[in-house]
Specification:
The complex is a heterodimer of chains A (about 90) and B (about 190). Chain A has about 90 residues and is largely without helices or strands. Chain A is built from one helix and two strands. The longest helix of chain A is centred in the C-terminal third of the chain and has 10 residues, at about 60-70. In chain B, about 45% of the residues lie in helices and about 10% in strands. In chain B, helix 4 packs across helix 5 (about 135-150) and helix 6 (about 155-165) crosses helix 7. Chain B is globular. The chains are: A little secondary structure (about 90), B alpha+beta (about 190).
Chain lengths: ~90, ~190
């Protein structure tokens, strides 16, 4: 069969980024593409999470804040009562 | 455990635009939990021309707990203790948010210098004076700025001379000034307390 090329080797290159507006987490000040200070690797192990107010943080960072606030935590950015975005 | 990587970042960011803000934060010792902030007195207030030092102590929970801040420079203001330098400011207490930084906290303190809240005083004597006799308040505040917040511009020799004239031995004056990093008021306090 003529005209057919066979590919022997194929390098896949991909990049990813979290779809967040700010580039850094307002709590730890690390890049969203990086991870929180307690993690070693960015990605699924250190996810971002959005509040109902649309502010994003590292999940680990906002959990630390929520756990330090009783009974109700507020968004660190806008002070709205913190609720996870549905 | 204090998030030191964040503190380091904060120091870099704050000191980068020091020429614009006039606000600086520097470590007092190696461990980054004791820091010294400086804020210029706001223009058009009795604090104008002064440079105010703020003692900063980072609790273990920082940035989830507010930094502990108090004036190291004596200041005459309704919301700042004229005795201890303690500051009455909501963001340093229950209104703290981890999105705030040492710099934004210092900016808030600078704003407090511009806009006293005598109805929620830290120093009742100052607040009473502010409400009843503003002129006397303003001149006292100016005098305190002149006496305590401007001395850092003096050269070392001038500071030594001033303290020697107060009756302290020169050798002791020099060693004390060195210990407190050249701060004349802190040196005087140390000399007086023996």
């Amino acid at each position: 069969m003529e005209g057919i090329e066979i590919v022997f080797l194929w390098h896949a290159v991909a990049s990813w980024t979290w779809d967040a507006q700010d580039e850094t987490c307002g709590i730890c000040r690390m890049a969203f593409d990086g991870c929180c200070p307690d993690c070693k690797l960015p990605g699924d192990d250190c996810p971002l999470i959005w509040g109902a107010c649309n502010h994003a943080f590292h999940l680990h960072c906002i959990l630390k804040w929520i756990n330090s606030q009783t009974p109700q935590a507020h968004c660190p950015m806008c002070r709205r009562e913190w609720q996870f975005k549905e | 455990m204090v998030d030191f990587s964040r503190v380091q970042k904060e120091l870099q960011e704050c000191n980068r635009d020091i020429n614009v803000s006039g606000i600086s934060v520097n470590p007092k010792s190696d461990n980054l939990t004791n820091l010294i902030g400086t804020i210029p007195g706001p223009i058009g207030t009795p604090y104008e021309g002064g440079t105010f030092k703020i003692d900063i102590n980072l609790p273990d929970g920082y940035p989830f707990e507010p930094p502990k801040m108090k004036f190291a420079t004596k200041v005459w203001h309704p919301n700042i203790s004229s005795q201890s330098g303690a500051i009455c400011l909501d963001i340093l207490k229950d209104q703290w948010s981890p999105a705030l930084t040492l710099k934004t906290a210092l900016l808030s303190i600078q704003a407090l210098l511009s806009a006293p809240e005598p109805d929620d005083p830290q120093d009742a004597v100052v607040a009473q004076q502010y409400l009843k006799d503003y002129q006397t308040f303003a001149s006292t505040a100016r005098y305190w700025t002149e006496s305590f917040a401007k001395t850092s511009s003096l050269g070392v020799e001038e500071k030594v001379q001033k303290l020697v004239e107060m009756g302290f031995p020169e050798g002791l004056v020099r060693s004390t000034l060195e210990v407190v990093g050249g701060d004349e008021n802190m040196a005087l306090e140390k000399l007086c307390s023996g």
